[in-house]
Amino acid sequence: MSRGLVLVSLPVVLAAGAAAVGWQQYQGFLNAPVTVDADYVLAVPKGSSYNTVVGALVSDGVIDKPLFMKAYGRQSGLAAKIRAGEYKIEQGTTPKGLVDVLVSGKSIQYSFTIIEGSTAKDLLAQLQQDPVLVQTLKDRSVDDVKAALKVEHPSLEGLFLAETYNFERGTTDLDILKRSKRMLNQKLQAAWEQRPKSLPYKSAYEALTMASIVEKETARPDERPEIAGVFVRRLNMGMRLQTDPTVIYGMGDKYKGNIRRSDLRRPTPYNTYVIKGLPPTPIALVGEEAILAALNPKPGKSLYFVAKGDGSHQFSNTLKEHNNAVRRYQLQRRKDYRSTP
Predict the structure, then answer these.
(1) I want to staple 36 with a disulfide (CB 3.0 to 4.6 A). Which of 40, 280, 332, 339 is the partner?
(2) Are 139 and 174 in contact (CB under 8 A)?
(3) What are phi and psi of 324, to 5 degrees?
(4) Measured between alpha carbons, how far is residue 236 from residues 202, 233, 239 in Å?
């Protein structure tokens, strides 16, 4: 049986050749580095389509063959999977790698830190100063903020966990508050459920108030449970807490850096030299360690403490011991002050 000749027309040969060349160009485009400098950032707003992103890449001079880029999006099935965010595109990245970055969702992260011991007022001012967050609360009243967060407590104080929060561009100031409030509730509730039942708190909110006092009294993690122990024993014995940070908080803008004897005697809802028990709300924003300290106070007999001047405290069981410690460390501070040139 003889084999017949297969004749292929010239137009078919040319079409096949053109297709081969086109395929080679397409593959070459996908595997060649895009044109970016070291600091190139691609912003993909929420709701952006793949074709819109391709248009932005062309406008920025990153790619020069939008049809190839669009074809790859359809062929790979990744066009519908890109995620909003800001993406740093490294030099040497190929178009295929660029699409992979957009699909990964690993966008540029910024951070916002809520400082332990700061107040809700401080926090709102700090949010307004952040250059990346979208500002939605500026010129809004505290009552407006409370309503937006569905806060039922009398104050915003203490309701946001002091922690560092990573976020993407497009995040609002209210988003940060909602997130930190949710984190605070989670940490507080978990610690509350594991608390010793003998503690004198009537609610988790009272425990949070104690945590805020502990937070303001010391920055040393090792001392927080011991200071909490002092205050818990005082509550159990019916003694006044007599803690200066509550006096300062109650003074508000009248506090100018010093507490006078008249300030200690002046009644405010927060002056624990005058009132019995805890103040009506927390006095600061707290971290998780202060919450754990308030709900896990260190056992002992100490009822007093005084600052040594080096960031630590001297704890005493009796008033006599405490008075001796006060004289000792106040005298030392005076000596240190006089010796300072």
Answers:
(1) 40
(2) no
(3) -65, -40
(4) 12, 5, 8
Segment 251-274 shows an average pLDDT of 92
Q: What is the DSSP string of 292-324?
A: HHHHSPPPS---EEEE-SSS-EEEESSHHHHHH
Q: Average pLDDT, stretch 134-162?
A: 94
Yes or no: say if 270 and 240 are a contact pair by the CB < 8 Å rule: no
How many angstroms separate the CA atoms of 180 and 175, rounded?
A: 9
The vertex-206 CA angle with 122 and 262, nearest 5°, equals 65
pLDDT, tens digit, 9 for 90 and up, residues 186-215 = 999 999 999 998 999 999 999 999 999 999
- The alpha carbon of residue 10 and the mean position of all alpha carbons in its chain are separated, in whole angstroms, by 69
C-alpha distances in Å from residue 296, one per residue of 78, 196, 208: 51, 7, 12
* 3-state secondary structure (DSSP) of residue 304: strand
DSSP state of 96: H
pLDDT of 17 higher than 90: no
SS3 call for 87? strand
| pLDDT tens per residue across span 263-299 | 999 999 999 999 999 999 999 999 999 999 999 999 9
The owner of tokens 């708190």 is: 201
